[in-house]
Design goal:
Rossmann fold; alpha/beta; 7 strands; binds NADP nicotinamide-adenine-dinucleotide phosphate; single chain; 7-stranded parallel beta sheet
Length: about 240
């Protein structure tokens, strides 16, 4: 059995990634923090794709929850290991910096960066021991270019990209690749409330992307043929580079 863990797998891009990984033959561990109902729907889709999976509830920013939940799974599966990790969980709380509440800064940075640290550290040791692993971090065009009204989100995603590059260098010899994907605007709950018509005008492709399109990039990066790509960031944004 090949195991993959997708944080924030209950909805949006994470759900599409879970289904893609199932199509690639992975048993998928679907993480969520609140929406068990949506996570169950993802699990159903994983099963429709011909594989099995399970739901793992934890807040990626809570180190104790992460250690306990993944740790218990690892103890129960000592003959196996999570060979694919997709750090996808994320939130946005947009506001110009001058008006941004401290909690909005902290939550966005915590979920993205502390979340990356908590989950990756927990699954990395077994990857190192087995000399194989694929880690994909869900960044954003905001992390590459910076986006006004999103200093918290841009800082978090920019930090995630830097962490991707640093970790890639640390573990390359262990046959573990670490890459990031930087989507532009993708049609999920996260962009709900934004003016889609106005957004489309800023995107050269004149449309939002789909979660499935992002999942295809993740699928490529975790595939064995992508073993020589590491420390990289792949944009998927319909031409929206600035
Ligand atoms: P979404 O539809 O809002 O889904 C967010 C997912 O993250 C949900 O599964 C949610 O779980 C999970 N999550 C949130 N906080 C969590 C926490 N503390 N611990 C564990 N899971 C948590 O968002 P999305 O659009 O699919 O975004 C997925 C990733 O892509 C995010 O990192 C986002 O920043 C990035 N991204 C999105 C876009 C876009 O345009 N949509 C563009 C660039 C980058 P629950 O269902 O339990 O709440």
């Amino acid at each position: 059995m090949k195991y993959a863990l997708v944080t924030g797998g209950s909805r949006g891009i994470g759900r599409a990634v879970c289904v893609k990984l199932a199509c690639m033959g992975y048993y998928v561990i679907i993480n969520c923090v609140n929406n068990l109902q949506e996570a169950l729907k993802t699990l159903e889709l994983v099963r429709v794709a011909g594989q099995d999976g399970e739901i793992m509830v934890f807040d990626v920013s809570n180190s104790e929850q992460v250690r306990k939940t993944i740790g218990e799974w690892q103890e129960a599966h000592s003959d196996s290991f999570i060979e694919v990790l997709v750090n996808n969980a994320g939130i946005r709380r947009d506001e110009i910096l001058a008006l941004m509440p401290e909690d909005d800064w902290n939550r966005v940075v915590d979920i993205t960066l502390r979340g990356f640290y908590n989950v990756t550290q927990q699954v990395l040791q077994p990857m190192i021991r087995r000399k194989y692993g694929r880690i994909v971090n869900m960044a954003s065009v905001s992390g590459l270019n910076g986006m006004q009204g999103q200093t918290n989100y841009s800082a978090a995603k920019g930090g995630l990209i830097a962490a991707t590059k640093a970790l890639a260098k640390e573990v390359a010899r262990k046959n573990i690749t670490v890459n990031a994907v930087a989507p532009g605007f993708i049609k999920t709950d996260m962009v709900e409330g934004l003016d889609e018509e106005a957004l489309r005008k800023t995107i050269p492709a004149n449309r939002l992307g789909t979660p499935e399109e992002v999942a295809e990039v993740v699928g490529f990066l975790v595939s064995p043929v992508a073993g020589y790509i590491t420390g990289d960031v792949i944009s998927i944004n319909g031409g929206l580079y600035t």
